[in-house]
Amino acid sequence: MKFTHISKKEVFKNDVITVYEEKLALPNNNIVTWTFTGKKEAVAVVAEKDNKVIFVKQYRPAIKKELLEIPAGLVEKGEDVELAAKREFEEETGYKANKLEKIVSYYGSAGINAGQYHLFYASELEKTSQHLDENEFLDIVEIPLDEINPYLFEDAKTIIALTYLTYIKNKKGKK
User: Fold this and answer.
1) Most buried of the four, 58, 61, 112, 144, by CB within 10 Å?
2) Distance CA 24, CA 31 (A)
3) What is the predicted pLDDT for the residue at 71?
4) Is 90 exceeded by the pLDDT of residue 139?
5) What pLDDT shows up at residue 116?
């Protein structure tokens, strides 16, 4: 299938998001306008400490409620994604990850967003202190891994991370 990109214009931009409208010629020769956000990358980290998973609980204005999710944040321009994951994890949780393993990179919603999530597993944690942004408010919640059902969470990155963690634990237990 051949799609032809005719034109693209920026219709909105702030520190977090850029919105574009792009004219496309479809394989059936119809011309459509597609609206999507730019390529802002994000990192997320799932971590265990003493068989407990570390979560953050924070209010999400877009859905008007608090969510329990794994720590995450945006990659700064030119920043390496692994360094961004370490930075965000320590800023939000107050733990330094001395070991970080990449799990997967994925598109959260490729139909409307060009950015990728980079998901990591952190271990060998060292207690430091939180360094939250001025307008960032969250609580740390630790839940024993054996009490977690990934599918009771509502956040996609958290569900993916917990599914991975459950898979790895089950795989190690069968060896």
Assistant:
1) 58
2) 6
3) 98
4) yes
5) 94
Q: List the one residue out of 103, 101, 76 whose CA is nearest residue 87.
A: 76
Least Cα distance to 10 among 31, 46, 40, 36 occurs for 36
Active site residue 134: yes
CB 95 within 8 A of CB 111: no
- The torsion angles phi and psi of 168, rounded to 5 degrees, stand at -65, -45
How far apart are the C-alpha atoms of 39 and 34, rounded to whole Å?
15
Q: How confident is the model at residue 80 (pLDDT cuts 50, 70, 90)?
A: very high
Token digits for 57?
């609980």
pTM (two decimals): 0.87
Task: Estimate to the nearest angstrom the gap between the alpha carbon of 74 and the chain centroid.
Answer: 8
Extract the tokens encoding 8. Answer: 């693209």
Please answer whether residues 81 and 41 qualify as being in contact, where contact means their C-beta atoms are separated by less than 8 angstroms: yes
At 74, the pLDDT band (50, 70, 90 cuts) reads: very high
Which residue type sits at 8?
A: K
Cα dihedral 27, 28, 32, 34 in deg (nearest 10)? -30
State whether the Cα torsion 128-133-134-139 is positive or negative: negative
Backbone angles phi, psi at 158, to 5 degrees: -70, -40
Annotated active-site residue in 48, 69, 82, 134: 134
